[in-house]
Design a protein that fits this description.
CATH topology of chain A: Rossmann fold
Structural class of chain A: alpha/beta
CATH architecture of chain A: 3-Layer(aba) Sandwich
Oligomer: homodimer
Largest sheet of chain A: 7 strands, mixed
Number of strands of chain A: 11
CATH class of chain A: Alpha Beta
CATH superfamily of chain A: Vaccinia Virus protein VP39
Number of helices of chain A: 8
Shape of chain A: globular
Number of domains of chain A: 1
Radius of gyration of chain A: 18 Å
Strand content of chain A: 25-35%
Strand order of the largest sheet of chain A: 3-2-1-4-5-11-10
Amino acid sequence: MQNIYDNEHFFAEYENMRGKEINANNLIEKPIFFSMLPSLSGKRVLDIGCGSGDFCRFAMSSGASFVMGVDCSKNMLSVAKSYDDGITYLNLSMENLSKLDDKFDVITSSLAFHYVEDFDKLIGDIANLLKDGGELIFSQEHPVATAFKSPKGGEIDKKIDIKGKRYYLLSDYNNIGKRIVKWNDSGVIKYHRNFSCIINTLIRHGFVITSVMESYADEEAIKKEPKYAYQNDRPYFLFISAKKL
Amino acid sequence: MQNIYDNEHFFAEYENMRGKEINANNLIEKPIFFSMLPSLSGKRVLDIGCGSGDFCRFAMSSGASFVMGVDCSKNMLSVAKSYDDGITYLNLSMENLSKLDDKFDVITSSLAFHYVEDFDKLIGDIANLLKDGGELIFSQEHPVATAFKSPKGGEIDKKIDIKGKRYYLLSDYNNIGKRIVKWNDSGVIKYHRNFSCIINTLIRHGFVITSVMESYADEEAIKKEPKYAYQNDRPYFLFISAKKL
């Protein structure tokens, strides 16, 4: 997995964006993600790709009995560790979860799984880290947003806007694998998986799907940032909750 | 639900298309649908939107103990009933499944559910018709293929092809409801539902999702009809199998 968050220039741009209250994470991703959470009171919670620890602090303040956050970025973890809050942080990439020998009631991950190449191993590792009946809740970029693929030797638009309507490039939707995207002037590597691949991988590792959500901007989000009105009816993030049998 | 198959002109065009061996149903939809079926031997099977009875005859020849087919089209059923094969056919629309008081082990439906407005009622009725542990296997048009919606008072392309790549109009992906599509010179009414709506409705009615598939044309299909090569990596049909707890 690429560790773009430890690229100095990228991290500065990212901090600048996330520092603003008005961004897609706060206005669109978080409300849906939080609406899918079970009670965390008394639970052992692991957050994968914890970044600067926002969710870990929320879990701790919600009464979790133990909270661990793992992230591949030292930059991110140095921000997280600046709080004195009893949370355990580990500099561990999502590829190496099998190094943990703990058991958790709830495992969460927000907008990180699309950076992982081996989704099958990731979900298998998570299944091993969950107690029976434990829950996984994660968000990632929506398959229609990661599907685009430029032809060899040329760039192609991943989306086209015509008369206020948005078209997505889906010719390679079923062609799962690496995608390179420009973000904050850097080339960010993501891995596209179609919907069936994501769902069937969870099922194969003993999960029962309990809920699926697709992102939208609600009225409150659009009031705060009118430009998100166009996100009302098109998907950008995918959210899944699943229970380990 | 619109009964387009009893429109004389539409039915003639449809029969003409389906009469050819080389079509998307035979080459793309059927192989995936059949790969998801459990053994039908000794089972009570209901096929919803059975059309001219192809699947019912397959179920009977696979050893099913009882096969019922329901369809809203008298045209279709008159073809189905021309065979003398012990299959029970009923002229019943998908909206009226609650009129049946039978129980089944397996319920199937091929490319019909996108014609139904009230998906919640449909899935609730199917849950009532299935024995505990019974299975539902269905295909329908893929959400990215039904998502398009023209603005009021104007037409807009549902897809755009550029440099051999295909873009889908997804601005209204989360806006579920009626869509009107031109097909065989007629205006066909379909109902778009996003992925989360489909999955969550099944879960709400006590189903456990067991598999999800998205259509592709395999090598054999492309050998028979090279023009389906472009369907290799873009989705057109969605397939779900689910078990009633």
